[in-house]
Design brief:
The protein is of the alpha/beta class. It has 3 domains: about 1-40 and about 310-395, no CATH class; about 60-295, NagB/RpiA/CoA transferase-like (Rossmann fold, 3-Layer(aba) Sandwich); about 410-455, no CATH class. The chain is about 50% helix and about 10% strand. The chain has helices at about 5-15, 20-40, 45-60, 65-75, 90-100, 115, 120-125, 135-145, 160-170, 180-195, 220-230, 250-260, 315-320, 320-325, 335-350, 350-355, 365-370, 375-390, 395-410, 410-415, 420-430, 435, 450-455; strands at about 80-85, 105-110, 130-135, 200, 205-210, 215-220, 230-240, 240-245, 270, 285-290. The strands form 2 sheets. It has a 6-stranded parallel beta sheet, sandwiched between helices. It is globular and about 95 Å long.
């Protein structure tokens, strides 16, 4: 097995058997599920809203080059600067150059999955630049030296007791503090960082083409502080985040909030059009937008193009039975859960990450839960087909399926395999996977075909 697959199987086996881990995860996901139901009540016709959102994203992705260029033209017209990054290295080099030009030794960063994708914090640390996470969940994960566990809720797998213990060990505060006190500790630590950092870095939830705007949604206000105090603002945004018009935000902002956290709308929704102007009293003096590809154009192939409609609400993770059992870190990727299983093989290589598309029950909950109606479970099947067509499977796997197909197409061969033989073969072949955590399988001594004949004879 490849390294990614070996790691996935090993971590999955541990987490699937960790009852305390599943208890914490279930507790937090159940709270989200309850609030999402309430959030949906704001809609008179939710299905119509979802269909309209999907149509808008379809138009945006079908005309991706046009809308990205329109965004660039409009953003540049207000004095902003746009950098096109084909891969992670180009994006990292661009950030480093800006930081060095500004003589920055410390940056503050709001929650951003795309910066996790390019491993920005580790990169800056190697160049003696401290990168401070300002989102509370991300701050917790940074203290614990872990990547985010969930697209929306980085520390979803931790209880309040876990966080209190972490703060005690890492920050030297009193043990067993309640959440309100822990928040105050984080606030005191982080507010100093805002006013002493030369550069603020954010992601972007949407790129608005017709106004040249970057939109950032958050619930804590940390992104606004990240962009208000430092003299330079860098927004790193995936190219798939573009939408045609500012009028579309009235549709997408509530959908993102409803399906992400169950809110009617996120607490802070900010539209950035560039650096502050002469008549403005606050904001950055320079603003850069780094448009990141990093494999996203691979998703333009027709079979999986819908995956580029994703608005990163995390809803598909919350309903996925696989994610609920193994959690976010087992995937070994930035984007976990169903949507991560669709896009990661195309972003990072089918040969190394095809196994993610097999880690699914294909129940369809992910598709049902998606606010923009992405056909996620069908694309997991498409990925499996692509991996076979491109011959990424092993020789033994290919032979096994050929033998299986031959047997399934022959009633004689099916009847020849008696119950005892089936039980022995299956329990031997799958002794390290299925049988390791369960009792042995015992097939009936008679096949359905035999029983049917006896019944009707």
């Amino acid at each position: 097995m490849g390294d990614a697959l070996t790691t996935f199987v090993a971590k999955s086996k541990v987490k699937a058997a960790d009852l305390e881990h599943k208890r914490k995860l279930s507790f937090n996901i159940d709270k989200y599920a309850a609030t999402v139901i309430k959030g949906k009540q704001q809609y008179a016709d939710l299905e119509l809203a979802r269909k309209r959102a999907k149509n808008i994203k379809w138009r945006a992705i079908e005309n991706l080059d046009k809308y990205l260029e329109q965004f660039e033209t409009n953003f540049l017209s207000r004095g902003g600067k746009v950098i096109w990054a084909e891969d992670a290295d180009e994006a990292l080099d661009a950030v480093l150059k800006i930081c060095q030009d500004k003589q920055a030794k410390q940056v503050v960063k709001s929650k951003s999955m795309v910066t996790e994708e390019i491993h920005l914090n580790d990169f800056l640390a190697k160049h003696n630049i401290e990168s401070v996470e300002t989102d509370l969940g991300e701050y917790i994960q940074q203290l614990d030296e872990e990547p985010p566990y969930h697209i929306v809720t980085p520390a979803m797998h931790k209880s309040k007791e876990d966080v209190a213990k972490l703060f005690h060990e890492k920050l030297g505060v009193a043990p067993n503090l309640p959440p309100s006190k822990l928040t105050q500790v984080a606030r005191a630590k982080l507010r100093e960082k805002y006013i002493t950092s030369e550069v603020g870095i954010t992601g972007g939830n949407f790129l608005v083409a017709d106004t040249g705007s970057v939109c950032v949604s958050e619930n804590e206000g940390n992104a606004r502080l990240t962009t208000a105090f430092p003299k330079t603002h860098i927004a790193i945004v995936g190219i798939e985040k573009v939408i045609p018009s500012i009028d579309d935000l009235a549709l997408f902002w509530p959908l993102l909030a409803t399906y992400g956290t169950g809110q009617n709308v996120t607490v802070y929704n900010t539209i950035f059009n560039g650096a502050k102007t002469a008549d403005e009293s606050d904001g950055p003096e320079d603003m850069y937008v780094i448009l990141l590809d990093n494999g996203r154009t691979n998703l333009l192939r027709e079979e999986v193009r819908e995956s580029m409609y994703c608005i990163r609400c995390g809803s598909c993770l919350n309903v996925c039975p696989v994610y609920k059992n193994i959690g976010g870190h087992a995937y070994g990727t930035t984007y976990s859960g169903p949507i991560g299983s669709v896009i990661t093989p195309h972003l990072k290589g089918m040969s190394d990450f095809k196994h993610l598309s097999y880690a699914s029950s294909l129940c369809g909950n992910c598709t049902e839960a998606c606010p923009v109606k992405i056909n996620i479970h069908d694309m997991l099947l498409v990925n499996r087909h692509i991996s076979v067509e491109e011959k990424h499977g092993s020789f033994s796997e290919g032979i096994s399926w050929k033998l299986w197909k031959r047997a399934m197409l022959s009633r004689t061969l099916m009847n020849a395999a008696k119950g005892g033989m089936k039980s022995k073969v299956v329990n031997t072949l799958f002794k390290d996977s299925w049988a390791a955590q369960r009792g042995p399988l015992q097939f009936s001594q008679k096949s359905f075909n035999q029983l049917w004949k006896e019944k009707n004879s």
